[in-house]
Design a protein that fits this description.
The protein is an alpha+beta fold. It has helices spanning about 1-15, 25-30, 40-50, 60-65, 85-100, 150-155, 175-180, 185-190, 195, 230, 265-280, 290-300, 320-335, 345-360, 360-365, 385-400, 425-445, 460-465, 470-480, and strands at about 55, 80, 100-105, 120-125, 130-135, 140-145, 160-165, 195-205, 210, 240-250, 250, 255-265, 285-290, 310-315, 340-345, 370-375, 380, 405-410, 415-420. It binds dihydroflavine-adenine dinucleotide, 2-Ketohexanoic acid (7N5) and manganese (II) ion. This is Probable D-lactate dehydrogenase, mitochondrial.
């Protein structure tokens, strides 16, 4: 009853653009920021980080005013490249004292408009802080600065026999992945960022530097006080700037088996997934692509993969026993009328088998030249997957829009990738409508409107429907405590 009240509220709100004058803004935003960016402010920034690390050039501001999503570019007034924690601290304090918005920038691969400078201000680019501070190979952890990218980290780690498995597809910064609580294809086995971060160093808006678990702490377990680490995971730059992350590492699996198979019915594929999980088979990846996704891929890469609903699977482990796991899954696939099962262990073969999954975003946007991805990102308890996937697919077919479905179904999480061209207003309206209905359906099925991309700009209305007014109020209190002047990435997560 309560949920449906919230959903009605949220349906009313998304129908219009929320401006600073609206009651919603006043209700859910802290003090609005008054940017005071003039030559003396820019001069003060230059004094802190050096002339070469401050840019007001249009091209640089444009580059920092958007991510990979469809959201309209919103440029910051100035871009600052920090080279040290001291830089971050002093720039934060200056912005706080002068009430200028401050937007941390990782690598701009986000999908919810997280770095778009809705109210102008300073974009704080931390990519120059790119040191791997420490690797504790025998403890399976390492500490990185915010400019360290996940692929760079894994290249560096290769000789140690370890890897950092969280894989959002894009080569994102590890601290940006903390900020959005990212996950991706490996979460079935290794969890999301929430399960893999041991400690964070954060610069608060007033310039204070804190370590969420205490300086140097890197234990797998702790019961010491509030879990500030988890508070900052998924905070999307709205509470502070993450300047160091200590993350968990894993042994590179001795053997990997990849597999792909097809189904005529969505329900057969999803039932197979649920049964694999119920049997406790420790899958590394369990992904679903529908027929429309495979069709996009074939067109984009000139492949001739079977155009059918497909499961992409991966097994990681010691060579001993992995083949048995594969055989058990094979039986389940056959029981559910799956066909065309292919498997590979060799790295090149495996990459070829999985190519459709990895090319998906670009294969999809290629269908409409100049389009950008509009991603939906719902996640539900695994037993509710068949219902929401089937209903979503029906909506996409009925609306007659291009909307391939790709799911991290092993986690109950899936996306429709809509190639989005804002000038086609009719299609855009249909996309928004389906996206909204998917989120509402997910919430009705005890799920969430975002499993991994975050709230950003696009899902602010949905947050209140998801968590309820009281919980949203508690979140706002936390925001006000850390950031009383609302300088940190204003207009994100909350209005
Ligand atoms: C092709 C493709 C495919 C995928 C994805 C993207 C793309 C382009 N993503 C989304 C994306 O990769 C993910 O959101 C990253 O975690 C963003 O990291 P960036 O470093 O790019 O942060 P980016 O610079 O885009 O910033 C994202 C948000 O975090 C904040 N932020 C960044 N660095 C910060 C810091 N140091 N301190 C505080 N705040 C900071 C920003 O202010 C912003 O709000 C994804 N994701 C996923 O989870 N699963 C997936 O499957 C995919 N798949
Ligand atoms: C529309 C982009 C969604 C990217 C993503 O999350 C994935 O490929 O899993
Ligand atoms: Mn994803």
């Amino acid at each position: 009853m309560y949920l449906s009240k919230c959903i009605r509220f949220c349906l009313q709100q998304t129908a219009r653009t929320v401006s600073k004058e609206s009651p919603l803004w006043k209700r859910y935003s802290t003090a609005a920021v008054q940017p005071k960016i003039d030559t003396s402010f820019v001069g003060a920034l230059k004094t802190i980080v050096g002339d070469a690390n401050v840019s007001t050039a249009d091209a640089i501001r444009e580059q920092h005013g958007h991510d990979e999503s469809h959201h309209a570019v919103a440029m910051p007034d100035v871009v600052v490249f920090a080279e040290s924690v001291d830089h971050v601290s002093k720039v934060s304090k200056l912005c706080n004292d002068t009430k200028v918005p401050l937007i941390p920038f990782g690598s701009g691969t986000g999908l919810e408009g997280g770095v778009n400078a809705l109210q102008g201000g300073v974009c704080l680019d931390v990519t120059k802080m790119d040191q791997i501070v420490q690797v504790n190979a025998e403890d399976f952890d390492c500490t990185v600065q915010p400019g360290v990218m996940r692929l760079g980290l894994n290249n560096y780690l290769r000789d140690t026999g370890l890897w950092f498995p969280i894989d959002p597809g894009a080569d994102a910064s590890v601290c940006g992945m903390c900020a959005t609580s990212a996950s991706g294809t490996n979460a079935v086995k290794y969890g999301t960022m929430r399960e893999n971060v041991l400690n964070l160093q954060v610069v608060l808006p007033d310039g204070r530097v804190i370590d969420t678990a205490g300086r140097g702490r890197r234990t797998k377990k702790t019961s010491a006080g509030y879990n500030l680490t988890n508070l900052f995971l998924g905070s999307e730059g709205t509470l502070g700037t993450i300047t160091e992350a200590t993350v968990r590492l894993y042994g590179i699996p001795e053997k990997t088996i990849s597999a792909v198979c097809h189904f005529n019915e969505v329900s057969e594929a999803v039932d197979t997934v649920v049964q694999i999980l119920q049997c406790g088979i420790p899958m590394a990846k369990l992904e679903f692509l529908d027929d429309s996704a495979i069709d996009c891929f074939n067109r984009f890469c000139k492949y001739d993969m079977t155009v059918a609903h497909s499961l992409f699977l991966e097994f990681h482990g010691p060579a001993y026993g992995l083949e048995d796991q594969f055989q058990s899954v094979k039986e389940l696939i056959e029981m559910n009328n799956g066909f065309g099962l292919k498997q590979a262990s060799d790295a090149d073969e495996r990459n070829r088998l999985w190519k459709a999954r990895h090319e998906m975003v670009w294969a999809c946007t290629a269908r409409i030249p100049g389009s950008k991805p509009y991603s939906t990102d719902v996640c539900v308890p695994i037993t509710n997957l068949p219902e929401i996937i089937t209903k979503t697919k029906q909506m996409v077919v009925e609306a007659d829009v291009i909307g391939p479905m790709v799911g991290h179904v092993g986690d109950g999480n899936f996306h429709i990738f809509f190639p989005c061209d804002h000038s086609d207003t009719e299609t855009f309206k249909k996309i928004k409508d389906i996206s909204h209905k998917m989120a509402v359906m997910a919430m009705e099925l005890n799920g969430t409107c975002t499993g991994e991309h975050g709230i950003g700009i696009g899902k602010r209305d949905l947050l209140v429907a998801e968590v309820g007014e009281e919980t949203l109020g508690a979140m706002k209190q936390i925001k006000e405590t850390f950031d009383p002047n609302n300088i940190m990435n204003p207009g994100k997560v909350f209005f």
